[in-house]
From TrEMBL:
InterPro entries: ATPase_AAA_core, P-loop_NTPase, RecF-like. It holds the Pfam family AAA_21. Gene3D superfamilies: P-loop containing nucleotide triphosphate hydrolases (3.40.50.300). PANTHER family: ATPASE AAA-TYPE CORE DOMAIN-CONTAINING PROTEIN, ATPASE-LIKE PROTEIN. Signal peptide: none annotated. This is AAA family ATPase. It comes from the Bacteria.
Amino acid sequence: MCMVNALKRVTASGFRSLNKVDVVFGPFSVFVGPNGSGKSNLLQVLSFVRDTARFDTGQAIALRGGFQHILRQDGRSRKVSLTIEAVVSDHASAKASDRYTLELEETKPGDIDRTEVLLYKRVSGQGRRQKIQAKGSEVSIGEGPQRAGTLDQFLSLASDDVSALGTMARLNEERLGSGPRDFFDFLSTVRYLDPIVEAARRPARMSNAALHDDASNLASALRALHEDHPDGFDALQRDLAQCLPGFEALEFGVIGGAATSIVVQLREKGVMSPIDLSDASFGTVRLLALLTALHDPLPPRLTIIEEVDHGLHPYALDVLVERMREASERTQIIAGSHSPTLVNQLHPGEIIICDRDPETGASIIPAYDRDRLKILLDKTDLKAGELWFSGALNGVPK
Ligand SMILES: Nc1ncnc2c1ncn2[C@@H]1O[C@H](COP(=O)(O)OP(=O)(O)O)[C@@H](O)[C@H]1O
Ligand SMILES: [Mg+2]
């Protein structure tokens, strides 16, 4: 089983601005493109599918304000179709990856049909992948798509709103092997980091929970890193020292009472008393949240970072790229960015350029072929970000 770099490919159609996109991933990938080109939409394919597995389909749709906020509003699309290919189950390999498809179709107003298909290797060696298909509340298993007509019905779900993947993960291991559970674990633990700086500034209730997606427990997650993984904490402080002039150290304060809360403070040269995170700059708090995730010694298999450059100085971007690349040995990293400075630090295989068809509004991802990008970069003195900003790679407003 491959531990890192599990996600291989995502396809999406009928999802917001995504109308037939097909994206291949390496250990570290950055979506680069102008505002509105569909970077976040692509990242949200993963968080949406994660939420259907974590909670259930109905709830994942409701969290986004309803099906009309998911379905592509072009007057034609009726169906959302999302596929995630990854190497996560015991017998999966690059040649026989696990493949999960989720389709949602509005048949009548307010009535959404859900179809899920999971293909995975049940046993090692040659042979077809096991297929599990859930349509509405009916689940069937079979040996492969070619035998779909002879599927043997064996289970009903409680309703057609629930996630078949979530249900399979809890049941039937004897019959289905660990594939569904492995895939569920991979999907449901995806970290989609989009810090809310105002929340991250506040004191946090002390706990050993991992950093939340919105970084609202930043103080507590940092404290846990300090206590349990001092090497990682020291490395994080060295990163901060590279990015923040005058930074000396992070310190913790405790707010007492029955429910103990933690505050983070920054000790800076020339400042007599340490600065509470509530008084630190926006970029400092955001940087701290990202670095806390990147120094997490036990991260989930996939970490997604929204607008990684937001609020950060170019020096900090250089440090972040280094840290993302290093962290990608423990957790696959996918980020979104607008910043040519950040892109300058990337290798061609790490860049996925995004563009948008000005007529149809459909995202074009990737908008430039990776191999061509490599050839082009070899031929020029320009760095990748400069080349992109010049317009030579697409993915800039016309
Ligand atoms: N349901 C939808 N149908 C069609 N297009 C949508 C839908 N929802 C959002 N969009 C388009 O997606 C764009 C936002 O894409 P997004 O991925 O957030 O951009 P960015 O690349 O800046 O992250 C919006 O400008 C809008 O045009
Ligand atoms: Mg965005």
